[in-house]
Amino acid sequence: xxxxxxxxxxxxxxxxxxxxxxxxxAAVAKDxxxxxxxxxxxxxxxxxxxxxxxxxxxxxxxxxxxxxxxxTVRLPAGTTVDLYVTSQDIIHGFKIEEHNVNLMAIxxxxxxxxxxxxxxxxxxxxxxxFCGAAHHTMAGRFIIEEGLDEAETEEDV
Amino acid sequence: MSTDLFRFTKSSKTLxxxxxxxxxxxxxxxxxxxxxxxxxxxxxxxxxxxVGGDYYKGLTFHGVLNAIVFTTFFAVxxxxxxxxxxxxxxxxxxxxxxxxxxxxxxxxxxxxxxxxGEATVLYTFYPPLKAHPLFYIxxxxxxxxxxxxxxxxxxxxxxxxxxxxxxxxxxxxxxxxATFIIWFIATLAVAVExxxxxxxxxxxxxxxxxxxxxxxxxxxxxxxxxxxxxxPAYVMYYVFLPKMAGGKxxxxxxxxxxxxxxxxFSIPVGTHHQYMDPAIGAQWKLLHGIxxxxxxxxxxxxxxxxxxxxxxxxxxxxxxxxFGWMTKLPYFNKENWFFPxxxxxxxxxxxxxxGGIINASYQMNTVIHNTAWVPGxxxxxxxxxxxxxxxxGSLYLIGQFMNKExxxxxxxxxxxxxxxxxxxxxxxxxxxxxxxxxxRRTNTGASYANxxxxxxxxDWMPYIDMTVIGGVLMFIGIVIYIVxxxxxxxxxxxxxxxxxxxxxxxxxxxxxxxxxWLRNFKPYIIIxxxxxxxxxxxxxYDVITTTYGGSLPFSPDSPVPLR
Lengths: 157, 563
Ligand code: HEM
Ligand SMILES: [Cu+2]
Ligand SMILES: [Cu+2]
Description:
The complex is a heterodimer of chains A (157) and B (563). Chain A has 157 residues and is of the alpha+beta class.
């Protein structure tokens, strides 16, 4: 093996190690992780939103052809939400604009992430897995308002 | 030089020509679908003007015909060409025909069910969306046909080894065997998914299916699938490109190492497509992420080795200084029309490779998963380097197997440039759109890109329009290619003796080490199997133990299950 080849191999390896270190840093120091197995939750068929602490809520969301239930969620700014997502029929996808939340909604499984809403505004979530003829109409919004008294949800029919 | 020429039997030449021409027609239908998609997404059309049907039917045949049918046929034809050529042994043409016929029947069945609207399930066919059983049967036949082609090469190789003790297996054969070893192991999982899960369920023999399990088996296959696409292109980069550029392969050992590394790390990585899935422990996702980084290494080595080979060629051609060699490569020489297909692919792969590392980066996947970024990314890989290499390769092979002089060489030479410009524009639009939150596999024209819809997203529009411009250019590039291809096919054959022989530009190596530790596939296959068992046992365990209930089949048109 000639010198420049060896050098290139080592450099490539180092590059990947650095990238990998960045991933571990984000996971350990910044606590940014991907969804994992959820075993402490019973299957649910209907959506619910309830308060679990001064600034914390739990939201159980159901995806079905072709709507999210709930489709509009109003929350006060500064809220942290424990978000559970499942599907009642086929595979759907769920991603909240401008937030690090991206979850597959799959029948027979519950998916989970925690999300914090700091800035007031409207955040779209569009279904991002093909779920049939009207997939492109399946979407909803989080509406985050400063000083909102009570969180609420709406559904479209 | 006798080693540069090989006489194929007439029957295997005809077969190889068929294996290239028929998929080329299917590819054209598929690419037409791609053009229509860009128009749908911008709201320019609401239904397909020629084929009929909605966005998702088009997306299904686009994905299946381009990414599964065309690529599989090319890989088989390429192996049918290079294995006999490199080993100087003729194919068993009965077996080769049997494989070709299985593949053709399978592809046509799958294509018909899709075009009839009976299989609008996209190329990933995730349950509980259900396709017509003939769709699953068609895909199975295609895969089984490709296995048969591979079995046909194995005895040729073993015989060659016996007769050539101590000699290095030709690099092209190493590459093709690596491709098909990966393909064989990976397709076992999808065969299990189809034969034991999807097919009985779609026939109504069983009622319910475990969606997560099917999905996990699909991705066991789905990631190695990308290496099945990529490796024939790598064979061309290592074996053909240096010679076409006017130089030598910088390091033969690097090539062998790269192919063996792909055997090791191509498969235990599939869960990186499921980072956002439920019912799989995050620690196992991370493990698959680590192996994904390992499989990036051979591509980085390739980047170095090929760049060094091109530098050697450019300097041979009179290039001076640090970068002078770059200007001395045959970019616009129509007699060397094949070169642009490969060099442009390498250029595109810079972006494709960086994108791939981003996607693989565990929690960073959150930002892009299932957004338009993803098709932006894989058009820069499979529809870029792979497609260009396969198009160039197809034209070259058809010239060889039909004894034709390539017609309209300047068209053939210019096509990849037009395509590449279009591709860069389209992928840029898709990628930026994806970062803004635009979902993939979505007919945006009917909602997010429709000013009358409550879902209208004005800030996505410039990027949706870019995909139209890029898509039109790509389509024009393909049309230019198709004209040159079929003009060649229908031109008069050369008839003299010498031209009846088949030849390939096989590069010599600059550094040619013995590399005895890279001579045998067996240890690599065994380690690969161990890695697969280690990385997939916990994943399958999680999926089985944390999912509940089963799913009835659904059609894409109704929220009510079919049974
Ligand atoms: C004229 C050339 C092409 C154009 C304009 C084009 C355009 C597109 C567009 C707009 C999408 C849909 C994005 C979405 O809704 O998610 C797409 C998807 C796709 N394209 Fe292409 N494409 C072209 C060529 C190719 C080629 C040559 C391949 C070959 C491998 C390919 C493979 C795919 C695949 C696998 C998908 C994903 C389908 C799915 O998500 O189910 N495309 N293409
Ligand atoms: Cu959807
Ligand atoms: Cu992958």
